[in-house]
Every structure is written in C-alpha cells, then in structure tokens.
Specification:
Blueprint (H helix, E strand, L loop, with lengths): L5 H12 L6 H6 L3 H19 L1 H9 L5 E2 L2 E2 L7 E2 L4 H12 L1
Antiparallel strand pairs: 1-2, 2-3
Length: 98
C-alpha cells in the first residue's frame, strides 16, 4: 500500500495540534466568521512549513514529548490514539530538514 506524502502528515499535525484545531467542533455548529479564521490559520501553518521549513520542523518536533507509543497526550486536551505514532512526526521533521 502506498504511503501518503510527508506534507500530509504536516497538515494533519497542524490541524490536530495547534489552537485552531480546538475550534473544529464550533465550526460544525456555527459556520460563519470563525470558519474564515480557521482557514487563515491553516494557510498560515502551511505557508510557514513551505517558506521556513527548518523553523517549522523545530516547532513540530516539540510535540514529540507528548507521544507514548502511538498515543498522543497533550496537557489539557483529551488523549487520542494515532495510526503511526511518533514515526509519522519524525518522518515529517526529517522531510522538512532535508
């Protein structure tokens, strides 16, 4: 089976780990100005990864400490099980630094 490209993991990290991701439930209930703000935050994350990959790699790498196997536990948020665990994060960081 073909693996998704590394940038797919970056987008997943951006959506799951950054403050904008916490507002996803609000968007389902009340689409409006908040949706545009979320779009802008996602675009900002993508642009940072694209224009300053080394800086973004350092940012993403900070989340490595929250992994225990395939489980991701960030303080103040509900833990969740990932499919690949920290390996996907490491792959994204290596891609950004290449």
């Amino acid at each position: 089976m073909r693996r998704p490209p590394a940038y797919a993991y970056l987008l997943a990290c951006a959506l799951l780990l950054f403050p904008a991701a916490g507002r996803a439930q609000q968007l389902a209930v009340s689409p409006g100005p908040t949706y545009a703000a979320l779009e802008q935050e996602i675009a900002n994350e993508i642009n940072l990864a694209r224009t300053r990959p080394a800086e973004y790699a350092a940012l993403v790498e900070q989340f490595r400490a929250y992994y225990s196997g395939r489980e991701f536990r960030q303080p103040g948020k509900s833990p969740f099980q990932t499919a690949e665990g920290v390996a996907a994060l490491d792959e994204a960081v290596n891609f950004l630094r290449a």
